[in-house]
């Protein structure tokens, strides 16, 4: 039985807690901009590369929440973010149409690429385009010779993947989970899972995540097997949340962000950003800023990417 | 950037302690009296309430996070407080996880003690209030165990912290959400390293509590 009141201990703990609060560096006073974006822009390091410029120029702090495009757009609809930087054009256009934003501005683009094992059992290096490649994967999948790993999370990449299946006139709902793995995970995890499907695993990836992960050496058996189809174009756009719908958003700073990220200086910063020697994002904001045609040389084929909207 | 940890790990660790520690204290201030009341009083539905409390040991952290998100989202009822994506929201979500754990273990502790002590103390002339107070003091070791376990639950969870915190660098990034980030980026060694840091922190907290116990301050 304790003689002393146990509450002394509680008081000590509470004081320690209060002291901890004091030591945590909270930056008071600065304006904050809440940016909801996708994992590909954050994990590739692009935001770490360009955001300090914005933060010092406008003397503010950018709070970055990196989730899938689907979730980022939902945050925008709920007024929980000030501005979005995502890559899901169909959902973005609907977002603007529904009045959640007054503008959608192109920022940069890259390509989706079809990743697979060097052995390439489905022979997609010979495929004429993305639709043909997916058809071959489907045929080999049902023959147990290939496995497709899907994001399955309504992200920009997932949405693109689903549209390719539709173009190939295939119904995803009928796909057996013996060869079509719907993971509900981020791109990095999906690449890891694809790597583990020894000599069989295929997936659709964005360039930024693929090259970044390749540079860490944890997906040694995966290669880019098919790219360049204009349908695989991957457009990133910046979308400020409409203050008429959500008065609490930092609308001025959000518009500053839109203007800043599309300005020539920052567009070149984006162009210059490389990982492992590879450019990850090609700026294309506004007229006259970027090359309409772009020649890319890959491991397996030369491809031409054409700007479409 | 892509090579590894670019954020301040010390700050992340302190934030973990702050968020989970606050949640534990808040959850215990609610859970201990709640557990004592349920354990010591006789009332209709006591059995049901106990079952619900024990069931909530398995309450998924991510659901707690989702609940707090719905309540404090701008689109939700308490959105105007603007606490989403701040440490405060994380504390609230973790508190919801701590309360049932602390309450449940307190119920068990006081019930155990109650059987033996209450009759003895009563026969020595104690009234109802004194008897209850004595039971709680006797159950104190069990209660402190409840608090420790509550802290363990809070500091180890990631679902709630990620959902209502957003893993914002410099603001709501804690050890568990940082581990998720490092894993997502493929930096598995860093992820494991952060896990080790978390265990060291938890160990430190428990050692500190043991130290207080030995000095009879707790």
List descriptors.
heterodimer; A: 309 residues; alpha/beta; D-Maltodextrin-Binding Protein, domain 2; 2 domains; ten-stranded mixed sheet; two-stranded antiparallel ribbon; 38% helix; disordered C terminus; B: 218 residues; mainly alpha; MetI-like fold; globular
H/E series of chain A: HEHHEHEHEHEHEHEHEEHHEEEEE
Question: Number of DSSP helices of chain A?
Answer: 11
* Distance separating the two termini of chain B: 44 Å
Strand content of the residues of chain A, in percent? 15-25%
In short:
The complex is a heterodimer of chains A (309) and B (218). With 309 residues, chain A is α/β, with parallel strands linked by helices.
How would you portray this structure in words?
- By secondary structure, chain A is an alpha/beta fold.
- Chain A folds into 2 domains: 31-109 and 234-291, Periplasmic binding protein-like II (D-Maltodextrin-Binding Protein, domain 2); 111-232, 3-Layer(aba) Sandwich (D-Maltodextrin-Binding Protein, domain 2).
- Helix content of chain A is 38%, strand content 24%.
- In chain A, the strands form 3 sheets. In chain A, strands 1, 2, 3, 4, 5, 6, 7, 8, 9 and 12 form a 10-stranded mixed sheet that branches. A two-stranded antiparallel ribbon of chain A has the order 10-11. In chain A, strands 13-14 form a two-stranded antiparallel sheet.
- The longest helix of chain A is centred in the N-terminal third of the chain and has 17 residues, at 7-23.
- Chain A starts with 6 loop residues before the first helix and ends with a strand.
- Chain B has one domain: Orthogonal Bundle (MetI-like fold).
- Chain B starts with 8 loop residues before the first helix and ends with a helix.
- The model of chain B has no long low-confidence stretch (mean pLDDT 89).
- The chains are: A alpha/beta (309), B mainly alpha (218).
- Chain A binds chain B through residues 1-4, 6, 8-10, 12-14, 17, 20-21, 23-25, 27, 34, 39, 43-45, 48-49, 61, 63-66, 77-80, 186, 188-189, 192, 212-213, 215-216, 218, 246, 248, 275, and chain B through 1-2, 6, 11, 14-15, 17-18, 21-22, 25, 73-76, 79-80, 82, 84-85, 137-138, 140, 166-171, 183-188, 209, 212-213, 216-218.
């Amino acid at each position: 039985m304790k003689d002393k009141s146990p509450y002394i201990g509680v008081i000590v703990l509470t004081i320690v807690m209060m002291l901890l609060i004091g030591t945590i560096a909270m930056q008071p006073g600065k304006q904050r901009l809440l940016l909801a974006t996708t994992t590909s822009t954050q994990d590739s390091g692009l935001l770490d590369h360009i955001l300090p410029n914005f933060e010092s120029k406008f003397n503010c702090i950018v709070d970055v929440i990196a989730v899938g495009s689907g979730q980022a757009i939902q945050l925008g609809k709920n007024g929980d973010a000030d501005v979005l930087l995502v890559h899901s054009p169909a959902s973005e256009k609907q977002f603007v149409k529904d009045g959640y934003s007054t503008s959608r501005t192109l920022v940069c683009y890259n390509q989706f690429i079809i990743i697979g094992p060097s052995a390439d059992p489905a022979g997609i290096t010979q495929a004429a385009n993305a639709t043909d490649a997916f058809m071959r994967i489907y045929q080999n999948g049902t023959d147990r010779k290939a496995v497709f790993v899907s994001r399955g999370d309504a992200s920009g990449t997932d949405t693109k993947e689903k549209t390719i299946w539709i173009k190939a006139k295939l119904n995803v709902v009928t796909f057996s989970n013996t060869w079509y793995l719907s993971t509900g995970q981020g791109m990095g995890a999906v690449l890891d899972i694809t790597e583990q499907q020894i000599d069989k695993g295929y997936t659709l990836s964005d360039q930024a995540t693929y090259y970044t992960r390749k540079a860490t050496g944890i997906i040694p058996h995966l290669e880019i097997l098919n790219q360049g189809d204009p349908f695989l174009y991957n457009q990133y756009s910046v979308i400020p949340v409409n203050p008429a719908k959500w008065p609490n958003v930092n609308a001025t700073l959000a518009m500053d962000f839109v203007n800043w990220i599309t300005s020539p200086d920052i567009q070149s910063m984006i162009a210059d950003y490389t990982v492992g020697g590879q450019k990850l994002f090609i700026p294309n904001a506004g007229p006259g800023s970027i090359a309409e045609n772009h020649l890319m040389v890959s491991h397996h084929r030369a491809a031409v990417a054409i700007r479409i909207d | 950037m892509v090579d590894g940890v670019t954020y301040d790990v010390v700050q992340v660790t302190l934030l973990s302690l702050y968020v989970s520690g606050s949640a534990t204290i808040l959850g215990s201030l609610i859970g201990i009296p709640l557990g004592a009341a349920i354990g010591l009083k006789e009332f209709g539905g006591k059995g049901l309430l106990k079952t619900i409390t024990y069931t909530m040991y398995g309450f998924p952290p991510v659901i707690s996070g989702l609940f707090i998100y719905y309540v404090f989202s701008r689109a939700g009822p308490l959105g105007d407080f603007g606490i989403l994506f701040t440490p405060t929201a994380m504390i609230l979500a973790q508190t919801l996880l701590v309360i049932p754990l602390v309450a449940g273990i307190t119920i068990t502790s006081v019930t155990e003690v109650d059987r033996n002590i209450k009759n003895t103390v009563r026969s020595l002339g104690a009234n109802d209030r004194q008897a209850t107070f004595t039971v709680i003091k006797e159950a104190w070791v069990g209660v402190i165990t409840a608090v420790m376990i509550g802290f363990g639950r809070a500091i180890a969870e990631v679902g709630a912290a990620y959902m209502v915190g957003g893993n914002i660098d410099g603001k709501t990034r804690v050890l568990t959400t940082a581990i998720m980030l490092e894993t997502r980026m493929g930096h598995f060694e860093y992820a494991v390293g952060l896990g080790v840091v978390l265990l060291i922190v938890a160990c430190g907290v428990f050692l500190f509590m043991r130290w207080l116990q030995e000095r009879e301050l707790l």
